Structure prediction request, 337 residues.
Amino acid sequence: MITLLTGGRVEQVDGLVVPAGEPVLGWERKPHGWCRGEACIPAFRAAEAETPEGVDLVRFAGLLSRPVVLDREEGVLAIGEPAELAVDHAPGFALDLPQGGRFELSALRGSKVALVFWASWCGCRYDIPAWDALHRELSAAGGFTLVSVSLDRDPADAAPWIADVAHPALIDAEGVVAELYNIVNVPTVVWVDEEGRIARPQDTMTATDTFRSMNNLSAEAATAALRRWVLADEPGLTAEEARAHLRLPTEEERTARLHARVAAWLFRRGRTAAARRHLDAAAALAPHDVSIRRGLMPLDGVDPFGEAYFELRAELEAAGVPIYRPLPDWQAPSASS
Prediction:
């Protein structure tokens, strides 16, 4: 048996070959090829993954341009998401709400959305009440929803910080939404407009100045920009500017996130040595991805606010890698505007 990690789901599959006639990763065999909705893989291409016994999962994922990490020794296979990040198409996703029910980004089409990525292992957890107050204020005007997305690997770590909020508060424990939006650290905010387009790509934003001495970010500028976007319908960035500053993931980053997903799965089961092997692989592929390296510290029994984090900061600063990634100052509104 193989444990399959894909799309935030954990499934047990009987080996790496899916028996003939069964769906594969949501795709079904038709006479002319494999199809999902209106999209199809022609039969001649699909033949690369087909065997007399069925369909090879790893090869089929390759046909879909979805990265794969396979650990045969531990019996786990992780398959990543399609590379769909683009200004003209904010990737859709669905997650269970901690309070019950299910959230789907597509349900908010027709209104503006601010995706606020945070984690309990970041000081930005203290901004959640301020973000929630902004949601209450701006959603009252209509046509706006703020959605917070915790990157905590253990939902229990995020739960106390979102217990009494009014906005949809999600926990991306498997890192699927972070993968879709290429989030490498928190706090990061992405604006999605009424048509489902990315109006402002991954931007380091705060809702309070609690840690301004460390991050040199202006909460006043960030919240003023958000108010103008919602209330005055100011675009903030042109489509060309948004496209120029959208950080698309590299293949190394996509694979690193799968190693992190496998590491989290192994840590939760006490298989620490194997988990650290995948954590090391992720760090080697994407050393700048703080959401992976710091985000896995709690599962490894490491204090994410302690010496290990400051060593990580020093490593990145020495390499010239920014901890925070705000959009250029010329794009940010001044505090007086």
